[in-house]
Write a sequence for this structure.
C-alpha cells in the first residue's frame, strides 16, 4: 500500500520535507502549527490584559505596555489566527478529500500562500522588537492616531498587507478547486457543507481583501510621505479611513465565521446518524451571509457622525444579515430531532458552539438597533459580543473540528476523558470571562481601558478569574491533543461512522488521497 | 418605569427591554429544546435515527417569523434614536465641548470655561463637539448618549435635556492613546436657579481654582490657561511624572534635552518655555517621547505664556 502522507518521503528530508511540500495535507498542518503557536501567544496576551484589569490602577503593567498588549493581541488573533484559522488549516487538509480530489488546483501556489503567510506574520511581529516601541493603535489602526503615534506602526501595517495576499491566494485556489475538481457525480448540491462555506468564504477573501490592502497602503503613505488622505489638518477625512477599513473588516468576520458554521454542519449529522436538516437552506444561507455581509460595515460607525439616512440603512441591513444565521441555528437544532446521538467530544463542542453563537448573535441585535447601539458602542459590551462570535463561534468550531478530524489527520485517537474535561473547564471559564463584560458595557465601561473607576470593579474580578480558568482549560485541551497525536490509540478509517468522502480513505490518508477517484452517486449525508 | 435622567433614556431603555426580552426568551427556549433533543434522542434511548431531510414549511416559518421580529426590533431601535438626531430646540443653551489627549473642557457662551460640564436641570443643552487632535468619543452613560469627536469635523453635535440634579460620568469611548482610560469628566446637573447663580458669576471662571487666593492675578490666569488647554492631562503640578515632565520646580532649573539626536543642557527661561509650547518637538526633554505634545502656536499668545510662567514660578 502507498505510505501515508505523514511518512511519505519525497526529494527533501527532515523539516524541508514539510516546508517545501506541496501536498495540501502537509500544508494544512504547517498552517495548523503556525496558527496554533500564534493562538497561544494571543491567548497569553489576553490573559495578561485580564490580570491587569483584575483591580483598578496599575496591577502588573504600565498603560503604554497595556496598550501595546491589546494591539498585539488583536493583530495576532485577527490577522494571524482567526482569518486563516479554519480555511487555511482544515480547508487545506480536507477540501480536496471531501470533494474527491487528489490535491488543490494549484499546489505550488498553495505552498507559496503559506510562505507569504509566514513572511507577513514575521513582519507584523517584528514591530514588537524593532524601532520605537511596539504599536499602540489597536488592531483597527484608526486615523489620525495611527499616523501620529511614535510607536512602530509601519511593520504591523505592512505585515497585515502581506497577510492579505496569502488570504487572496488561498481563496482563489479554493474557488478553482471547487469549480474544476469535484469528483464525477458530485454536482454542486452533492458537495458537503464545509466545502460550501469555504466557497462562500473564498469569494469574500478574493473580493474584499484588496480593499484593506489599499487602505493599509494608504496608512503607510500617510506615515512616510504625509499625504493627508485622513489628516484633517491637510483637508483629509478620518471617517474615510473608518469606511475603508470596515468595508473589508466587516466581511472579514464572515471569512472567519462561515467555515466555522461549515464545520458544525459536518459534525452534527455524523454524531446524529441522520442527514443534516435543510441542506439547501444551509447552502443558501451561507451565500446570503457572504452577499449581505458586504453591505453592513457601517454598523461599526454608528456614532462616528454619518448622516441619519446612512445610519438607519445600515441598521436595517444589519438586521437582515441576522436572518441567515438564525436559519442555520434552527436547522442545526432540528438535525438533532429523532436522531440517535453519540455523545463524543466534537459533539460537545458543536452544541456548545450553538449556545455561545446564539448569545453572540442576540447581542449583535442589541448592537444593530440604533438606540441601543449608541449606548453600548465602544464599550465592554462590544468586546463581549465579538468574542462570543469570533472566539465563541470560530474557536469552538475550531476545537470541535480538530477533535472531529483528529483521527483522520494523525491516524490516532485523542484521550476522551481529558478532552471532555478540558472542554468543560474551558466552557465554564469562557462564560465567566466574557459574560460579565456584557454587564460592564451596559453600565457604561468603555473598551480598551487600562484602568477603570471603582464602580466597575466587581464584574472585572469575575471576568479575570474566568480568564484564568479558561486558559487552564486550553492548556488541558492542547496538551491532550499533542500527547495523543504521538501516543493515542490507532484510529480506524471511519471511527465516527461519518458519511462524507474523507471517511472513505485510510487514516492518515495516503499521499494522493484516493487510489482511484471515487464516483459520487448520493447526497453527502446519507445513513442507513 | 424608567428613571428619565435625560430625555432620551426612556426611548433607549424601551428598546433595550424589548430586544433583551425577546432574545432571552429565544435563547432559553432554543437551548431547552436542544438539551431535550440531546437527552431524548441519545443513542441509548433512540438506537435508530429517523432519516429526515428537512421541511420546506418549517424553513419558511423560521425565515419569516424571525424576519418580522427583527423588523420590530429595528423599529424600536429607530424610534428610540430618532430624537437624538433631530435638531435641538431653538432655545437650547450652546456649549462647546472640547476633547483632546487626554481631557475634556467646556466653553460656555459667556466665556466661562470648566473641566466638568455644568448644565441646568430641565433646559435643553446643545454641545458642539470638537477634537483638537485625534478621534475621541463623548459618552454619558447615564444619558444614553455617545457621539464621536472627529478632528476637522464641525458637524459633531449632541443635545439633551437633563432631568435630575446630580453628577454623572463622562467617558472618552474611542481609544485615543496612552491615557485614554483617564480621559473622563462629569456632567453636573443643577436646579435652574442654582445654575443661573453659578453661571452669572463670571469672576470665578473656574470653580476649581477658588481657594487658591494667595496667587497673583497673573498666576491665576496662567493656571486657568493650563486648564483650559488641557495641559494638565500630561503635566502634573506636584512632581508626579505623567506623559510629560511635571511643572514643579521647572523655572530656573537646568534641563537635559535632545536636539537633533544630540544631548545638551539648557537653562530654563522664558525663551525655552515659549519654544517648548510652540515647537515642542525641537527640543525633547530627555526620557520623554517626541510627538506627544502638539504645538500651541496660534492657540496661546505670548502674553498668555507670560502668565503661565507666573504660575510656574509659584510651583517651587
Ligand atoms: Cu479620548
Ligand atoms: Cu479615548
Amino acid at each position: 500500500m502507498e505510505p501515508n502522507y505523514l511518512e511519505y518521503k519525497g526529494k527533501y528530508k527532515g523539516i524541508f520535507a514539510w516546508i517545501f511540500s506541496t501536498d495540501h495535507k502537509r500544508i494544512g498542518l504547517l498552517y495548523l502549527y503556525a496558527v496554533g503557536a500564534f493562538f497561544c501567544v494571543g491567548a497569553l496576551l489576553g490573559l495578561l490584559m485580564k490580570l491587569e484589569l483584575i483591580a483598578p490602577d496599575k496591577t502588573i503593567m504600565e498603560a503604554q505596555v497595556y496598550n501595546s498588549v491589546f494591539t498585539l493581541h488583536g493583530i495576532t488573533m485577527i490577522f494571524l489566527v482567526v482569518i486563516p484559522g479554519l480555511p487555511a488549516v482544515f480547508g487545506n487538509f480536507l477540501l480536496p478529500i471531501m470533494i474527491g480530489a487528489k490535491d488543490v488546483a494549484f499546489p505550488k501556489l498553495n505552498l507559496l500562500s503559506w510562505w507569504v503567510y509566514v513572511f507577513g506574520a514575521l513582519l507584523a511581529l517584528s514591530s514588537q522588537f524593532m524601532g520605537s516601541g511596539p504599536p499602540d493603535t489597536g488592531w483597527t489602526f484608526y486615523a489620525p492616531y495611527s499616523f501620529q503615534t511614535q510607536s512602530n506602526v509601519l511593520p504591523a501595517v505592512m505585515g497585515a498587507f502581506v497577510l492579505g495576499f496569502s488570504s487572496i491566494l488561498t481563496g482563489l485556489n479554493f474557488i478553482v478547486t471547487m469549480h474544476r475538481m469535484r469528483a464525477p457525480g458530485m454536482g454542486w448540491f452533492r458537495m458537503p457543507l464545509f466545502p460550501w462555506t469555504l466557497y462562500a468564504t473564498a469569494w469574500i477573501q478574493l473580493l474584499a481583501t484588496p480593499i484593506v490592502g489599499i487602505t493599509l497602503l494608504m496608512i503607510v503613505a500617510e506615515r512616510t510621505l504625509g499625504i493627508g488622505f485622513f489628516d484633517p489638518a491637510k483637508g483629509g477625512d478620518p471617517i474615510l479611513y473608518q469606511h475603508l477599513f470596515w468595508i473589508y473588516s466587516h466581511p472579514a468576520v464572515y471569512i472567519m465565521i462561515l467555515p466555522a458554521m461549515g464545520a458544525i454542519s459536518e459534525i452534527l449529522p455524523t454524531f446524529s446518524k441522520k442527514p443534516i436538516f435543510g441542506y439547501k437552506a444551509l447552502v443558501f444561507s451561507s451565500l446570503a451571509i457572504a452577499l449581505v455581509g458586504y453591505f453592513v460595515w457601517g454598523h461599526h460607525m454608528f456614532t462616528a457622525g454619518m448622516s441619519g439616512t446612512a445610519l438607519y440603512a445600515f441598521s436595517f441591513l444589519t438586521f437582515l444579515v441576522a436572518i441567515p444565521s438564525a436559519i442555520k441555528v434552527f436547522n442545526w437544532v432540528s438535525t438533532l430531532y429523532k436522531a440517535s446521538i453519540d455523545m463524543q467530544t466534537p459533539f460537545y463542542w458543536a452544541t456548545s458552539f450553538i449556545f455561545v453563537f446564539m448569545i453572540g448573535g442576540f447581542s449583535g441585535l442589541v448592537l444593530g438597533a440604533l438606540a441601543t447601539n449608541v449606548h453600548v458602542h465602544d464599550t465592554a459590551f462590544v468586546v463581549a459580543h465579538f468574542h462570543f462570535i469570533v472566539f465563541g463561534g470560530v474557536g469552538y468550531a475550531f476545537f470541535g473540528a480538530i477533535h472531529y478530524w483528529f483521527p483522520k489527520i494523525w491516524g490516532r485517537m485523542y484521550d476522551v476523558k481529558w478532552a471532555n474535561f478540558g472542554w468543560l473547564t474551558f466552557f465554564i471559564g469562557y462564560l465567566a470571562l466574557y459574560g460579565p463584560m456584557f454587564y460592564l458595557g451596559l453600565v457604561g465601561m468603555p473598551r480598551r481601558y487600562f484602568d477603570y473607576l471603582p464602580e466597575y470593579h466587581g464584574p472585572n474580578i469575575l471576568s479575570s478569574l474566568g480568564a484564568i480558568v479558561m486558559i487552564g482549560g486550553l492548556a488541558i485541551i492542547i496538551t491532550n491533543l499533542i500527547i495523543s497525536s504521538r501516543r493515542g490509540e490507532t484510529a480506524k478509517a471511519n471511527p465516527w461512522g461519518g458519511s462524507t468522502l474523507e471517511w472513505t480513505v485510510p487514516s492518515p490518508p495516503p499521499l494522493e488521497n484516493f487510489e482511484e477517484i471515487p464516483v459520487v452517486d448520493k447526497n453527502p449525508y446519507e445513513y442507513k | 418605569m424608567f428613571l428619565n435622567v435625560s430625555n432620551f433614556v426612556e426611548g433607549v431603555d424601551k428598546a433595550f427591554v424589548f430586544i433583551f426580552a425577546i432574545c432571552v426568551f429565544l435563547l432559553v427556549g432554543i437551548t431547552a429544546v436542544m438539551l431535550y433533543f440531546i437527552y431524548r434522542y441519545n443513542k441509548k434511548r433512540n438506537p435508530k435515527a429517523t432519516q429526515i431531510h428537512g421541511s420546506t414549511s418549517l424553513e419558511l416559518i423560521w425565515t419569516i417569523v424571525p424576519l418580522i421580529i427583527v423588523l420590530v426590533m429595528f423599529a424600536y431601535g429607530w424610534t428610540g434614536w430618532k430624537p437624538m438626531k433631530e435638531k435641538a430646540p431653538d432655545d437650547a443653551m450652546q456649549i462647546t465641548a472640547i476633547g483632546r489627549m487626554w481631557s475634556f473642557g467646556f466653553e460656555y457662551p459667556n466665556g466661562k470655561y470648566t473641566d466638568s460640564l455644568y448644565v441646568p436641570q430641565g433646559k435643553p443643552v446643545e454641545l458642539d463637539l470638537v477634537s483638537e487632535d485625534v478621534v475621541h468619543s463623548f459618552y454619558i452613560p447615564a444619558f444614553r448618549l455617545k457621539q464621536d469627536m472627529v478632528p476637522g469635523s464641525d458637524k459633531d453635535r449632541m443635545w439633551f435635556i437633563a432631568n435630575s440634579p446630580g453628577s454623572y460620568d463622562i467617558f472618552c469611548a474611542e481609544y485615543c492613546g496612552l491615557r485614554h482610560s483617564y480621559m473622563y469628566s462629569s456632567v453636573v446637573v443643577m436646579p435652574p436657579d442654582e445654575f443661573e447663580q453659578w453661571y452669572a458669576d463670571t469672576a470665578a471662571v473656574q470653580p476649581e481654582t477658588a481657594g487658591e487666593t494667595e496667587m497673583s492675578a497673573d498666576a491665576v490666569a496662567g493656571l486657568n490657561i493650563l486648564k483650559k488647554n488641557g495641559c494638565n492631562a500630561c503635566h502634573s503640578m506636584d512632581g508626579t511624572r505623567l506623559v510629560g515632565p511635571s511643572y514643579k520646580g521647572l523655572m530656573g532649573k537646568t534641563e537635559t534635552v535632545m536636539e537633533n539626536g544630540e544631548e545638551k543642557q539648557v537653562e530654563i527661561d522664558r525663551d525655552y518655555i515659549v519654544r517648548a509650547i510652540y515647537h515642542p518637538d525641537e527640543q525633547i526633554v530627555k526620557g520623554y517621547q517626541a510627538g506627544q505634545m502638539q504645538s500651541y502656536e496660534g492657540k496661546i499668545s505670548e502674553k498668555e505664556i507670560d502668565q503661565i510662567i507666573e504660575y510656574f514660578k509659584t510651583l517651587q
